[in-house]
């Protein structure tokens, strides 16, 4: 059930059963399960965008699984001489790398790589442009599952820059398939009607008293720097202030993919507050990435897993 | 005796007995002692300032102790998206990192981290702004101990940019407590009367014939670049020229924390000369850092050390 | 036979027998041979120029041999404070590093290091300025050997920026000694008569129908950016177009050290075409570097190899 993903590039390829199986396997890892590799697996983490959570989480997951990491720093690579991502991965493949975990600013960068057929190495997408971020989606599902034990009927609002968020896209799609009701909130300029088929765009204040999960998206200051964006105004209109938090049900939870802009998406002391699952999300991420990597290893018959 | 440091942030927390115990343990490592970890310890080196000696020395010490290193590059992390040091360490903690070795340009950056109480990981300070540099202090003590076997009554002159040197601050304080007589020399503009309680500001030429140790501080060109600083003039007035070296006692030694500006703090061929302990300091650093890390592991019950 | 290289800096030190022995040993590694180290060997890869192929290939070779890698990033080191390469290596040596693999933009950077006599660590040159690139030369020889089984009498044309190519220099010299006939082609401005003693400067079209190997050099755009260089014009006049490829003998092969500028040095679809050995070169590089490292370990009695 967990062996379908030759490459793990987007959530559209992950059906409900597989998502639930990954959550279960991640929970096993969280409770101490270990994998034994009979053969070395060489992995490269190629992050073409800055990252702490996702990058370090993959490093940790690989270490815990016993993979052999080969250092690779895009900034000090031939990419700076103009070499394409394809030719860089072709090189890593030729050098004997079995698995590449890639983050790249280009939407769907992985399609020509996977479809080209000349790359022997397996690929895990750790985030593409405004596209997908499957490991974040799955760790979010795991965190919701730990809280509620199910998805059907849950009411989940995703608030922020919907149009440009890979988290919004990946999550809304799978949550809907799992039977949750998805709402979108945030500035109208940051919403795209492409998302209409995945949920309902609404006012945050209106929906807050009824939801089980408030999923806040990071404001990408680097994207909005030149548009007269005001952090204070954002917080007042779309952020989880103390006033808005008081509207939430007691058993509802707050989620954020990080890094948090404290005092923007939510009030600073809510980040580690009673209803926040921010730290738990990061913790779960390591175990979910272990499950995803195992799935890819099995699909590619890597590591000699019995 | 070596188990007091929950976090190793500054020399003020290190009493005389602990300093001597660390030196003894470092000497044991230098003579081949090995530590056996029964459980993995995950460590991150987070250097927010450039470093060769200290950074690589910690990498080597951790490797020799059998710690599991998780790659982390501040320049490619979410720090560049504005994430704070606290939130970065909160992330690493959630990901399962047990120990962070941190260098950061801000004075006493570690205080809010240690006092906040929300970080489970242990912290070793590898240098903070113009503040402390405990591992450098301890390797300096080890090097002095190897030479003289004691500290009481030793006469030690520290020469250079006293006010902005974390080495000067850390060393003067502990050397005084260990019974040494500390002198300061160098440009008056670079001296601060904050140091009066730790030693005597004096003329280098006057004190050179009587001291056991000449401790030269690196000129931080990056700090003095815009002030009309002249390397030649500095060498002539405050550097260890051949003329000044000839004033030293035969058994006196020269120390420098590195990197050396050859021909500025001291004449180039004195760097690896008979009286210099520059290379020995670097060599000792690995073993002292092993002792410091062991101390922190024991205090935090990490690694399952019997 | 394989134990001569105390430091592996240039091909002039490698005699024919040693080259053939290295090829044989690399083939053994390619067919699964393993080395067993009885003692840890600490290695640093210090790349002062960007690289994917060579850097990652050395990382992989070291990992497969079981060396212990110590992380070192020149951009985050004291080199940025002005520390010299010599003093950086002196530091790494003092910290216990046994072997440094260095790429540096300065021609013959290694000479003062090797001749100084104060460095205990062994050195492998991974490319110096416009000078030497011994690991590339040897993996090229390995690839030619796999194809033809011998070197005597082979006709090999090297095309491109001969004057500034470390590949051209290293390869022409050893190929000539091994009995091959070497030809040079490419823009006259990019040729230097220093190479006259190693081969014949000629027209690419004239020699193409008669050669066994076409060795294309990378156009260093970073070098020619300001000179009105036209990629299209280069491709038309000196590149391996489909038209020129049709002039080649059926059994002749195409080689390129990478990274390829597709559509400049050669037509894009020739890169992975039937006659290209581009991927095979990269693959062979790991095994050749294993053989080179073993040679240096043995010459320095490192690793306790029986």
UniProtKB/TrEMBL annotation, chains A, B, C:
Provide the GO MF annotations for this entry: amino acid binding; aspartate carbamoyltransferase activity
* Keyword annotations of the record: Pyrimidine biosynthesis, Transferase
Enzyme Commission number, as recorded: 2.1.3.2
Give binding positions for carbamoyl phosphate: 53-54, 103, 133, 136, 258-259
- Domain Aspartate/ornithine carbamoyltransferase Asp/Orn-binding span(s) in chain numbering: 153-294
What does the record list as GO biological process? 'de novo' pyrimidine nucleobase biosynthetic process; 'de novo' UMP biosynthetic process; amino acid metabolic process
Q: Oligomeric state and partners?
A: Heterododecamer (2C3:3R2) of six catalytic PyrB chains organized as two trimers (C3), and six regulatory PyrI chains organized as three dimers (R2).
| Stated role | Catalyzes the condensation of carbamoyl phosphate and aspartate to form carbamoyl aspartate and inorganic phosphate, the committed step in the de novo pyrimidine nucleotide biosynthesis pathway.
What PANTHER family does this protein map onto? Answer: ASPARTATE CARBAMOYLTRANSFERASE (PTHR45753:SF6), ORNITHINE CARBAMOYLTRANSFERASE, MITOCHONDRIAL (PTHR45753)
Family designation? Belongs to the aspartate/ornithine carbamoyltransferase superfamily. ATCase family.
The name under which this protein is listed is Aspartate carbamoyltransferase
Q: Which organism is it from?
A: Lacticaseibacillus pantheris DSM 15945 = JCM 12539 = NBRC 106106
């Amino acid at each position: 059930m967990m062996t379908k993903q030759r490459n793990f590039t987007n959530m559209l390829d992950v059906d409900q059963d597989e998502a639930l199986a990954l959550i279960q396997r991640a929970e096993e890892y969280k409770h101490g399960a270990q994998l034994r590799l009979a053969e070395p697996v060489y992995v490269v983490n190629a992050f073409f965008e800055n990252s702490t959570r996702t990058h370090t989480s993959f490093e940790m997951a690989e270490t815990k699984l016993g993979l052999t990491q080969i250092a690779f720093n895009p900034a000090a690579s031939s990419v700076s001489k103009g070499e394409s991502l394809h030719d860089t991965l072709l090189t890593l493949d030729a050098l004997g790398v079995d698995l590449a975990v890639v983050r790249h600013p280009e939407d769907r960068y992985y399609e020509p790589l996977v479809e080209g057929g000349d790359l022997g190495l397996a690929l895990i997408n750790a985030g593409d442009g405004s596209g997908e971020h499957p490991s974040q989606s799955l760790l979010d599902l795991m965190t919701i599952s730990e809280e509620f034990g199910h998805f059907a009927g849950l009411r989940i609002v995703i608030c922020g820059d919907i149009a440009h968020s890979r988290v919004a896209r990946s999550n809304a799609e799978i949550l809907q398939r799992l039977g949750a009701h998805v709402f979108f909130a945030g500035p109208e300029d940051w919403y795209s009607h492409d998302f209409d088929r995945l949920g309902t765009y609404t006012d945050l204040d209106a929906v807050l008293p009824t939801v089980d999960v408030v999923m806040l998206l990071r404001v990408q200051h680097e994207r909005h720097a030149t548009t007269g964006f005001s952090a204070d105004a954002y917080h007042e209109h779309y952020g989880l202030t103390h006033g808005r938090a008081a509207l939430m049900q007691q058993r509802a939870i707050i989620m954020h993919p990080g890094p948090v802009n404290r005092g923007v998406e939510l009030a600073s002391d809510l980040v580690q507050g009673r209803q926040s699952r921010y730290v738990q999300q990061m913790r779960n991420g390591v175990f979910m990435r272990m499950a995803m990597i195992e799935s890819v290893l099995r699909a590619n018959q890597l590591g000699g897993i019995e």
